[in-house]
Design brief:
By secondary structure, the protein is mainly alpha-helical. It contains 2 helices and 2 strands, in the order E-E-H-H. It is found in: Cell membrane.
């Protein structure tokens, strides 16, 4: 069983070489930094959905219906 022609033993050897080169503390710090970056990205994308797409005008809005005004009948 392999991953695209790479056996599990080859992956283990590559992982060991990476750990030996960078050390576990540096890899742990890199992983936590990457996780924080992903969380920040998801949070910023979630805030985009919460915002209304059209900004509402600030101030007072008048909602009125125009009506025809009838003048009172004149008495002679």
């Amino acid at each position: 069983m392999g991953f695209g022609g790479i056996s599990i033993w080859q992956l283990v050897i590559v992982l060991l070489i990476v750990v030996m080169l960078f050390g576990t503390k540096r890899l742990k710090g890199l992983g936590s930094d990457l996780g924080d970056a992903i969380k920040g990205f998801k949070k910023s994308m979630g805030n985009e959905d919460d915002k209304p797409s059209v900004e509402e005008p600030k101030g007072q809005t008048i909602d009125a219906q125009a009506r025809k005004v009838e003048e009172p009948a004149k008495k002679d």
